[in-house]
């Protein structure tokens, strides 16, 4: 009789223990399933990404994308003679933010279609602002809000006095004005600085 009671008690304990373990596994499985399948109902939240886009414009607002800038002499003549010490300015250009977010931009002069070392031996190129001040391209960075335009810029080319006459019959072309832009540090909706 004692053996029979002991056997019933052990069987009952094992059965209850097994049920407790199964209940724990089921609870853990259900919690895991709920964690990975729960969806918060939308509360009219709209997430919109902006577009960073810039354009180079002439003084009449016409795009200069892939268009040449003309250098002119003091009389406005584009047929100029490059000689040592000669300095000429390009037509003015402006940078316009045609995207819908605030952006930071940098302006760079890039040589293309020419031997860079020869070009830099002969010319001293730079970008100047409306007052004729040289823009330090290594440090210049400016912010434009959506739809805004920059101030006036021009490319200034000076043929170095040290160039001599060895470049007399050479043609240098392919200098490009490139604008690099990234989204600025201003919230595009409130136009307030981001934290």
Provide tags for this entry:
elongated, alpha+beta, 195 residues, 2 helices, 25% strand, three-stranded antiparallel β-sheet, four-stranded antiparallel β-sheet, 9 strands
Description:
With about 200 residues, the chain is an alpha+beta fold. Helices cover about 20% and strands about 25% of the residues. It contains 2 helices and 9 strands; from the N terminus they run H-E-E-E-E-E-H-E-E-E-E. The chain has helices spanning about 1-35, 115-120; strands spanning about 55, 70, 85-90, 95, 105-110, 125-130, 140-145, 155-160, 175-185. Strands 2-3-8-6 form a 4-stranded antiparallel sheet. Strands 7-5-9 form a 3-stranded antiparallel sheet, with no helix packed on it. The chain is elongated and about 115 Å long.
Layout of helices and strands, plus pairs?
Elements: H1 2-37, E1 54-57, E2 71-72, E3 87-90, E4 94-97, E5 103-111, H2 116-122, E6 123-129, E7 142-144, E8 153-159, E9 175-183
Antiparallel strand pairs: 1-4, 2-3, 3-8, 5-7, 5-9, 6-8
Average predicted local confidence, pLDDT = 77
Low-confidence spans: none
Rg value? 35 Å
Q: What is the helix content?
A: 10-25%
Order of helices and strands: HEEEEEHEEEE
Shape estimate: elongated
Number of strands: 9
Major pleated sheet: 4 strands, antiparallel
Helix segment count? 2
User: If strands are numbered along the chain, what order do they take across the biggest sheet?
Assistant: 2-3-8-6
Distance between the termini: 80 Å
Our estimate of the beta-strand percent is: 25-35%
| Coarse structural class | alpha+beta
């Amino acid at each position: 009789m004692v053996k029979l009671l002991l056997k019933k008690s052990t069987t009952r304990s094992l059965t209850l223990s097994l049920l407790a373990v199964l209940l724990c596994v089921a609870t853990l499985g259900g919690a895991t399933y709920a964690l990975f399948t729960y969806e918060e109902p939308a509360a009219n939240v709209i997430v919109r990404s902006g577009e960073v886009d810039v354009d180079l414009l002439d003084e009449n607002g016409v795009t200069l994308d892939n268009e040449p800038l003309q250098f002119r002499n003091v009389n406005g003549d584009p047929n100029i003679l490059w000689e040592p010490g000669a300095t000429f300015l390009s037509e003015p250009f402006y940078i316009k933010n045609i995207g819908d977010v605030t952006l930071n931009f940098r302006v760079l002069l890039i040589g293309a279609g020419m031997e860079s070392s020869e070009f830099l031996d002969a010319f001293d190129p730079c970008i100047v602002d409306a007052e004729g001040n040289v823009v330090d391209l290594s440090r210049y960075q400016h912010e434009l809000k959506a739809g805004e335009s920059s101030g006036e810029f021009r490319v200034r080319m000076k043929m170095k006095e040290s160039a001599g006459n060895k470049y007399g019959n050479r043609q240098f072309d392919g200098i490009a004005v490139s604008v690099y832009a990234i989204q600025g540090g201003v919230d595009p909706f409130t136009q307030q600085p981001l934290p």
